[in-house]
Amino acid sequence: MSAPRTTLRRSLTAAAALPLLAVALTACGYGSEAKDDDTKSVSTGGKKLSADTVKIGYFPNLTHATALVGIQEGLIAKELGGTTIKPSTFNAGPSEIEALNARSIDIGFIGPSPSINGYAKSEGKSLRIIGGSASGGVKLVVDPKKIKNLDDLKGRRIATPQLGNTQDVAFLNWISEQGWKVDAQSGKGDVSVVRSDNKVTPDAFKAGSLDGAWVPEPTASKLVAEGGKVLLDESTLWPDDKFVITNIIVSQQFLSEHPDVVEAVLRGTVNTNKWINANPDKAKASANTALEKLSGKALSTEVIDPAWESIQITDDPLAATLQAQADHAVKAGLLEKPDLDGIYDLKPLNKVLKAAGQPEVTDAGLGVK
Fold first, then answer.
1. What is the pLDDT averaged over residues 74-86?
2. Cα–Cα nearest to 264, from 81, 15, 24, 8
3. What is the pLDDT of residue 43?
4. Alpha carbon of 71 to those of 7, 47, 225, 291, 334: distances in Å?
5. Closest Cα to residue 294, out of 69, 12, 25?
6. Is a pLDDT exceeding 70 seen at residue 288?
7. Which pLDDT band, with edges at 50, 70 and 90, does 36 fall under?
8. How many CB atoms lie within 10 A of CB 38?
9. 3-class SS of residue 61
10. Which helix H or strand E contains 248, and what residues bound it?
11. Are β-strands 244-251 and 127-136 bridged in parallel, bridged antiparallel, or unpaired?
12. Eight-state DSSP code of residue 33
């Protein structure tokens, strides 16, 4: 049985304040170091904007395709003229937030949970969400020899990437919707929730120490390549099959000091997303080329094809679904309640969208007043 869609729809409109994921700020697996790549610092020449350089952070992950493709194809640099892009890659959201706070990066592509955490921990002074990037791309993959249907999950060992991360919260919420009990901190209960780094999860699954995993792409498709079966696509639990998996954040200080640069980057991301959606095969190849340069190894066809298919690239930050995800974490007992009013500033994005003849997007009542 699956979680009732009506419950999730109600949570989209819940008026509860968004909370701080205190446990995730110090949980195991966080704090991965950034990787700078000086060879990828790029500019197209011409007139500089108000900053010589804009430092952009993102993950070497298909759900960060806007950054992968936008930098690889020069679509973001094109809008910046003589202002140079300095890219850095990260393996964990909290380390990217730390880099933003330390001014090591100015703009970042990142998931909803670390965005909420960073904003709340700074009491609303560190960042703003300024745009969307991706929806979907999260699946529950299981060993079909052990698990035939969703009821068979009871008593099994199912991995999530990190304690309190976006997928961990989603799985805990799904478990609750089944009427099952799991202690959020320890992961013990009717289902054993095992926090496992995405880098090691495929090997652990292959060895039989995990019975399945609720994970983002391309990890989900890597598990399928090892004999796993997709039992549930998380997008089916959301209205219109959409939920935020990656959004764009900016340092409030950088936004204040260099609004022209921020607007130029957003023009680049909007153009990139348009190109990706118009040229999916070329964009998939471009993203894989970027991944190969960053990690030393491209994804195989059997992994990248299904992974790419399940991700929706979008300018819309899907703000209502960020609130819903935070509400789920409150219900799981992982979150306290800070005031996240003002986490969004979508005025620059809506200006860019309007100029491009595209519809504006909403902040679900959580924008700068």
1. 96
2. 81
3. 62
4. 39, 19, 29, 12, 36
5. 69
6. yes
7. low
8. 7
9. coil
10. strand 244-251
11. antiparallel
12. P
